[in-house]
Design brief:
alpha+beta, Glutaredoxin, metal-binding, 2 iron, 2 sulfur cluster binding, redox-active center, disulfide oxidoreductase activity, 5 helices
């Protein structure tokens, strides 16, 4: 059985999608998998933390073009790991940063987009 190479998007398409998604949404989570089926524990953790305070936010499944999303997001944030959360166009962090904000009682305010 042959498996075709990555059929995802090219780097320019991903760069454009990342820029547009961040610009067009108050809160964005770039994650592995979907809201209904997260594909890693860190993405699941980030979803749970955001869900406590936001009913509406955008998620982007990066798995079809993982390398391209990783490069595009690292260019924006300097952070190479996924998931990544953006609020009002600004990089907030991954699931560990969201958890730290929650522990300090700052996550709700951070996610309260303006």
């Amino acid at each position: 059985m042959d498996f075709p190479p990555n059929q995802g998007l090219d780097q320019d398409e991903v760069d454009e999608q990342v820029a547009e998604t961040i610009a067009d949404n108050e809160v964005v989570l770039f994650m592995k998998g979907t809201q209904l089926m997260p594909q890693c524990g860190y993405s699941r953790r980030a979803l749970g933390l955001i869900d406590q305070y936001r009913d509406e936010y955008e998620t982007v499944d990066v798995l079809d073009s993982l390398d391209e999303f990783r490069a595009a997001l690292e260019d924006r944030s300097g952070w190479e790991t996924i998931p990544q959360t953006y609020v009002d166009g600004e990089f907030v962090g991954g699931s560990d940063i969201l958890a730290e904000l929650e522990e300090r009682g700052e996550l709700e305010e951070t996610l309260a987009a303006e």
